[in-house]
Amino acid sequence: MQQNHRAAPIARDTMAYVLAGGRGSRLMELTDTRAKPAVYFGGKTRIIDFALSNAINSGIRRIGVATQYKAHSLIRHLHRGWNFLRPGRNESFDVLPASQRVSEDQWYAGTADAVYQNLDIIEDYAPRYMVILAGDHIYKMDYEIMLQAHVDSGADVTVGCLEVPRMEAVGFGVMHVDETGRITDFIEKPADPPSIPGRPDTALASMGIYVFDTKFLAEQLRRDAADPASSRDFGKDIIPHVVRHGTAYAHSFNTSVVKSEGEADAYWRDVGTVDAYWQANIDLTDVVPPLDIYDRDWPIWTYADVTPPAKFVHDEEGRRGTAVSSLVSGDCIISGGSLSRSLLFTGVRQRSWSVLDHAVVLPHCLIGRGARVSRAVIDRGVRIPDGLVIGEDPELDAQRFRRTATGICLVTQPMIDRL
């Protein structure tokens, strides 16, 4: 009797390579001491955990992470939280700092170079496919579906894409596609992005996710490395070259987005500005948030400190530990203060009579007695003095803190020390 064997998932023959070397300068002081992928997000996680969790949940068991800018906190997080993959199970997890492996005076010159300099490591593992990922976006996606589409199309490269308002596409790679989904043109960060035919206000933007056959990718990277005119970048050099001389297909995020029952729309965010970072965190305080981080079918893995539970103390009129529509992480003590539509990371201490409103407070901060903080991001370890008011006087806020055009304040300890 003949047995039907289900084909093994393509993800098992794939390596995910996460590009996590960027600073993310638009996050201002949040990236003074850490790379953008290492920035805290959502109460317990870091930004990079989303790309890594997508890879693990998709069935990929070989992962490499290229780091460069101020990488210590990122590398420490990766070692603590992502060291469960085991070579004995045909798994691997490699942290790949820029280490002048090609030349004594050459760090990673671009996104493509960050892969090229580690080709020997990749080829030693011999994965059949490569998924190249950006390590600085918030989303849930099943890469197995994209891998299957890549194999079915016979493409040289498959590019993950999403539809965005046309003028928001100035910071992306933008593509033209034909009726089959084949990319006919690819322009990196155009000042005047081309629109989708018949939809003048919408553009098709690259997510910075690429699927290649490993052998083809290696050929392209070596060709590019030999070109003195190249900027060593996937979006500027590799992808446009394949579009012109090979076959490149677009893969819509809507096809492989992972949504739980409560998620109405496909959620993808570049949290690369203070405003976007604040908004994405505050989004999580909605009654039904647009991103479900409670989805047990697609968990967001991370390193988590062993902490005691959050604690709310005092029950006096005007001095009662309360939280409304907020996320409060472990080891937080709300001691006679109140918070609304706010998100507290691990180990925050909020003292009596203080008020937090639409605040994102990173780990181990202290909110002093009687302080009032609204529409703000408080960096890790900041000690807000007793009685300090943030978010109510735009002129004073702009003098003291980093204040965005929409009125969001970013507060760091050096700013507090200068008061």
From TrEMBL:
Pfam families documented for this protein = Hexapep_GlmU (PF24894), NTP_transferase (PF00483)
Cite the Nucleotidyl transferase domain residue spans from the record: 17-285
Question: Which pathway, per its entry?
Answer: Glycan biosynthesis; glycogen biosynthesis
Which keywords describe this protein according to UniProt? ATP-binding, Carbohydrate metabolism, Glycogen biosynthesis, Glycogen metabolism, Nucleotide-binding, Nucleotidyltransferase, Transferase
Q: Which family does it belong to?
A: Belongs to the bacterial/plant glucose-1-phosphate adenylyltransferase family.
Q: How does it assemble?
A: Homotetramer.
Query: What is the role of this chain?
Result: Involved in the biosynthesis of ADP-glucose, a building block required for the elongation reactions to produce glycogen. Catalyzes the reaction between ATP and alpha-D-glucose 1-phosphate (G1P) to produce pyrophosphate and ADP-Glc.
Q: What is this protein called?
A: Glucose-1-phosphate adenylyltransferase
| Species annotation | Aureimonas populi
> Coding gene?
glgC
